[in-house]
Amino acid sequence: MTPKFEYSQVVNQEGIQRLGNILEQCFLMSPGESEIFFNRLGLENFRIIRQGEQIAGGLATISMGQWWGGQRVPMTGIAAVGIAPEYRGSGAALAMMQHVVKELYAKGVPISALYPATQRLYRKAGYEQGGFSCIWEVPTESILVKEKPLPVCDVPGTHEIFHQLYQHQAKLNNGLLDRHQGLWQRISRPDENEAVYAYLIGCADQPQGYIIFSQHQNQDGSSIRLRDWTVLTTAAAQTLWSFIANHRSQIKYVRWRGSGNDSLTLLLPEQTAKQKSAMRWMLRVINVSTALEKRGYSQGIQAELHLEVQDDLVAENNGRFILSVANGRGEVTSGGKGEMKLDIRGLAPLYTGLFTPQQLQLAGQLDATETAMSAATQIFAGGSPWMADFF
Description:
Elements: E1 6-9, H1 13-26, H2 33-41, E2 46-51, E3 54-68, E4 71-83, H3 92-106, E5 111-114, H4 119-124, E6 128-139, E7 152-154, H5 160-171, E8 177-178, H6 181-188, E9 197-203, E10 206-218, E11 221-231, H7 234-245, E12 253-258, E13 274-285, H8 288-294, E14 303-310, E15 319-326, E16 329-334, E17 340-343, H9 344-352, H10 357-362, E18 366-368, H11 370-379
Parallel strand pairs: 4-5, 11-12, 14-17
Antiparallel strand pairs: 1-2, 2-3, 3-4, 3-8, 5-13, 6-12, 6-13, 7-9, 9-10, 10-11, 14-15, 15-16, 17-18
Helix pairs in contact: 1-2
C-alpha cells in the first residue's frame, strides 16, 4: 500500500525546527545554519511533506525570472530538497515534487528549474536537463592580458549599479536569472572569516562591468573566486583580465562560474583556462502555452510548429498545440497536426536549446516530421543555455 503524504507550508515553530534539522543533516550544515537559509529566502517559501504528524522532508521555492530569447520568463527555482534518512525510499520525495509542480501550475508559473543531486527523482516529476553551469579555472601567470583600457574603482558590494549592469548581461544570455534578493545577498555578504571585494569597471557615470570576488588559501595554493562578474564591452572584458592578472604575485589561480563555451576565454593568449567541473541544471515546463508565449525568439524567424505533448502530472498540458512565431514573439493555440510528438521532459531541452531537435530525436526524446524538425530548429536556435548562480 502506498504511504499517504500531506504537503503544506511550515505552520509552527516545531515544524521549523524539524525542517531545519533535516536540511542541516542532508546538506552537511553546521548546527543552526538552516536559520540563515530560512531568513535569506523567507519561511513562507518553504514547503514540507508529512506522513501523519511526522515531517518527512521539505524544500524551498524561489520566485525569480529566467531570460530566454531576450525575454524574462517567470520561473520558480526549487532548492534544498531534503528527506530525513528514515523516510528515504518511501516515495516522500517524489510525492513532494509532484505536489510542488501542481502548486506552481495553479499559481500560473510557466517554468521551474533546479540543480539535481540525482536526475531520476526529478525526471519522474517531468524535469529534464536544461543548461550548463561550469566552474572554470586559469593560472593567473598565464593570463598575460596587460592592456587595461578602463579604470577600476573600489565600491561597496551591495551597490545598486551591480543589479542594473547584471540585468543588461543576463538579458543577452539564455538561462541567466532575474535573481531573487536572497541570491544577491549570498554574493555580496561574506561568510564568516571571509572578505568580499567589489570593483566597478569603467567610469562611474558610464560603467561597463564589475567584479565581485573573495580570496582563498588551501593546499593547492592561493586563489581568487569570482562570486559574480559582468562585462558589457570588449574593453570591460580586457580590463577584467588585466585586473586579475595583476594579482599574480600572490594569487596562483582564479576560478569563476560560466557557460560551457565561455567567451571570456577567447581573450586569453593560450588555452590555459580549463573546466574544473561541469554540471547540467534541470528545467520543467509547468505550463506549456504560457512558457512558449513568454519566451522570446529571433526577430528574423517566422515559423509554425505543431506539437503534441504528453504530461502525466499536469493534465492541462496534454494535447496538441500550434506555436506560431513572428517578430520575436510566440503565440500558442490549441489543435494542429501534432507533427512533433514529445513528453513534457523532452520539451525542456528543446525549449532551452540545450540540444537540437535532431539530437533529441536521436536520444528518443521526440518524434517528428521533417517539416516540424526544420521549424523547431529555426525557432529554438540560440546561444548555449547556462546559469551563473547555484541555488
